[in-house]
Write a structure and sequence with these properties.
By secondary structure, the protein is mostly helical. It has twelve helices and no strands. The chain has one domain (about 5-55, about 75-275, about 280-335): Glycosyltransferase (Alpha/alpha barrel), CATH 1.50.10.150.
Length: about 375
């Protein structure tokens, strides 16, 4: 992937960093790095707030036009990928906050959970409408999997909140977790079928490779979501339904794991052939490996297979390492960008015209003509 392509994907997936950082926070404890979980969680909260504030600042002059655009007919399905990262990022953060104590669990987590479900409903509906009204067939890429991933993430966030609530609130969250698991998994398999048929018919040329990480990660997210929804829900639904969810979770995890091996192999082959690594490293690999670790953990518990749980812990460790490398590349890119701006400013001051007015050259002592 060229540097320009990597930057384009980073811009088009605005909450990619939130997803990856929140995912790394969720799995850090699995590989023995418990001390990183809370700092990474609050870093994800800060990223979500900063990105939202930056967007609000850019659109402050035409925010009414921006809100009205949400209700207009959406464009092609691929154009919805960026907005779908918002509900998914909010859901990942809500899941982490639900495990905290005090105000984060009681106040902040419900706010993020409500925002995740609301944005999932709006962005998911726009995606479905764009697919239904698309007219002639359009290429299916890995970004399409963000639609079911958003639903699955909201379901996991609801399931996490079940353990800390009671009464009607607990029942509502349990049903939301079940709905997210069933609808999201059905959407995942539907897009898998559409993507397979499309790639066979048209080939894979022209589709961003890094987005196929989301296809594998979404399968892991589906396994984790079904495993969470299938927990003890006494009196809400039959025990047989929980057993069906367990079977579906294991099958989906096996498929996603196979796909992940292919995607990782494809990515390594590509990395061996590049000459320079872009500092605009994409976030989907870090997030996808995190949810694959969670899906593997759920499958290992369902199968009572310690070896699968060990694999999940190993993938969690690789996730944290991958997140650190990706974040480091972004920090290096920002540092280089700031240095370049400072260098250009210095050159501008050095070669300022001799008749530059006071202050225009950056010299507070006045223009050279006055000295």
């Amino acid at each position: 992937m060229s540097g320009d392509s990597a930057r384009r994907i980073a811009v088009e997936l605005p909450y990619g960093a939130v997803m990856a950082t929140g995912g790394a926070s969720r799995v850090a404890g699995m590989c023995g790095l418990v001390g990183l979980s809370e700092p990474l969680l609050w870093l994800a909260v800060g990223e979500a707030a900063w990105i939202a504030a930056s967007a609000a600042a850019r659109h402050r002059a035409n925010w009414r036009h921006w809100l009205a655009a949400l209700w207009r007919r959406p464009g092609r399905p691929g154009a919805q990928s960026g907005t779908l990262t918002v509900p998914l990022g909010l859901a990942v953060v809500a899941t982490g906050l639900a495990t905290q104590e005090g105000v984060p669990r009681a106040v902040v987590a419900p706010a993020f959970l409500a925002a995740a479900w609301l944005s999932t409903a709006v962005c998911g509906a726009r995606f479905v409408v764009s697919v239904a009204r698309g007219g002639r067939p359009v290429p299916v890429d890995g970004g399409w999997f963000l639609a079911p991933a958003a639903v699955l993430g909201a379901g996991i966030a609801a399931a996490t909140g079940v353990a800390h609530t009671g009464g009607v609130e607990r029942d509502v969250l349990a049903w939301l977790s079940l709905a997210g698991a069933v609808v999201g998994t059905a959407g995942y398999w539907a897009i898998c079928a559409a993507a397979s048929a499309d790639v066979v018919a048209r080939g894979s040329r022209g589709r961003p490779r890094v987005l196929w990480w989301i296809a594998a990660g979404c399968g892991g997210l589906a396994a984790a979501s079904m495993g969470a929804a299938a927990g003890p829900r006494k009196g809400l639904w039959p025990v047989a339904l929980s057993s069906d969810l367990h079977v579906a979770a294991v099958v989906t995890w096996l498929f996603a794991s196979t796909l992940a091996v292919l995607v990782v192999g494809w990515s390594i082959w590509w990395l061996l052939g590049i000459r320079r690594i872009s500092t605009a490293a994409p976030w989907p690999p870090a997030f996808s490996s995190a949810v694959l670790a969670l899906g593997s953990l759920a499958a290992g518990k369902i199968l009572h297979a310690p070896v699968v749980v060990t694999i999940a812990d190993a993938v969690a460790g690789l996730t944290v390492a991958l997140w650190a490398v990706t974040a480091g590349l972004h920090v290096a890119g920002w540092t280089s960008s700031l240095g370049s701006r400072g260098h250009r400013g210095a050159r501008h001051r050095q070669f300022a015209p001799r008749d530059t007015p006071i202050g225009a050259s950056g010299d507070p002592s006045g223009s050279p003509r006055d000295r």
